# Entry
Amino acid sequence: GFHLSGYGVDQANDEAYGAGFEGWLRLHLLSFDRFTVFADGGGGRTYFYPETPEGGSKWNWTAKIGGGVSFQLDDGVYLMGGARYFHVSNGNQWGRENNPSYDAVQYYVGLMFNL
# Structure
């Protein structure tokens, strides 16, 4: 599937904000009544303002991989949360010296809708 992501980044000299579009794959490994355990991952393109990481670029690539759990709230509506490895960089588009990257663990909660 696909999803839209929004970001807020606390940088040393300036806060940044971003929005991105990502391709996604999620595999539900275990199901217990209204709960599932899943692994997921994907990546895509994200625009940040100002440059993120500092000294980098406004257009970046993102990659994420991890897992989580979901709980069914209603027909086709799930509360979900988990943790992922998160990477952002511009993929050396403007040379290695202009490509700072950022790697972290990303924790998340959200709603998932089956269409």
User: Anything to note?
Assistant: The beta strands are 2-10, 15-32, 35-52, 57-74, 77-89, 102-113. The first strand starts at residue 2 and ends at 10.
